[in-house]
């Protein structure tokens, strides 16, 4: 069985970047500031602070990723409080919170959340006509899994 949820034209967008990718995310965000201004923004740690300064608009700031910010975003995804994730992660550096990063990306797949991991995917996502429209997202019904005998 498939469930459906409405994603409104004003999206709830989480923005996250590892240290080596923060400058790239800020450049992208500045170039897309008009589109970002139409949405509700969330950012982890320093990324949230830099986004507020770069965009001159409010960003709901969560904890730093290694201190639980990635898990906060994941929790918000599971509670259907985040519609999109822009996560410029660093594939070349080991992160102290790699398990959190993997869990966050896994939750995006489980909850059918679009994820952009670099400038190209963020550009494709934000130039989609669906960014300005209501979207009905399908969601796998996990009730069989939840009701299984253990």
Helices and strands, with pairings:
Elements (H helix, E strand, L loop, with lengths): L1 E6 L4 E6 L4 H10 L1 H5 L2 E5 H11 L4 E3 L6 H10 L5 E5 L9 H13 L4 E2 L2 H8 L8 E6 L2 H4 L4
Helix pairs in contact: 1-3, 4-5
Keywords: Lyase
Enzyme class: lyase
Protein name: Methylglyoxal synthase
Provide structural commentary.
This protein has helices at residues 22-31, 33-37, 45-55, 69-78, 98-110, 119-126, 143-146, and strands at 2-7, 12-17, 40-44, 60-62, 84-88, 115-116, 135-140. It is an alpha/beta fold and 150 residues long. Strand 3 (40-44), helix 3 (45-55) and strand 4 (60-62) form a beta-alpha-beta unit. Helix 1 (22-31) runs parallel beside helix 3 (45-55) and helix 4 packs parallel to helix 5. It is globular and about 50 Å long.
Write a concise synopsis of the structure shown.
The active site is at 70 (proton donor/acceptor). Belongs to the methylglyoxal synthase family. This protein has 150 residues and is an alpha/beta fold.
Strand residue content: 15-25%
Helix-strand pattern:
EEHHEHEHEHEHEH
Task: Tell me the CATH topology.
Answer: Rossmann fold
Uncertain stretches? none
CATH superfamily: Methylglyoxal synthase-like domain
Span from first to last CA? 22 Å
Helix/strand/pairing category: alpha/beta
Question: How many β strands by DSSP?
Answer: 7
CATH class wording: Alpha Beta
Instruction: Calculate Rg over CA atoms.
Output: 15 Å
What is the share of helical residues? 40-55%
| Count of discrete structural domains | 1
The DSSP helix count reads 7
- Rounded mean pLDDT score: 93
Strands in their spatial order, largest beta sheet: 4-3-2-5-6
Largest sheet: number of strands, sense, barrel closure = 5 strands, parallel
């Amino acid at each position: 069985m498939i469930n459906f949820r409405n994603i409104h034209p004003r999206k709830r967008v989480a923005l996250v970047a590892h240290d080596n990718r923060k400058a790239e995310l800020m450049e992208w965000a500045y170039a897309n500031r008009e589109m970002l201004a139409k949405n509700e923004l969330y950012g982890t740690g320093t990324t949230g602070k830099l986004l507020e300064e770069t965009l001159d608009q409010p960003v709901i700031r969560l904890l730093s990723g290694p201190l639980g910010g990635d898990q906060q975003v994941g929790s918000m995804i599971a509670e259907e409080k985040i519609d999109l994730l822009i996560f410029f992660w660093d594939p070349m550096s080991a992160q102290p919170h790699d398990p959190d990063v993997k869990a966050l990306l896994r939750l995006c797949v489980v909850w059918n959340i679009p994820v952009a991991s670099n400038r190209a995917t963020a550009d494709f996502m934000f130039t989609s006509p669906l960014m300005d429209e209501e979207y009905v997202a399908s969601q796998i019904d996990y009730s069989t899994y939840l009701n299984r005998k253990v």
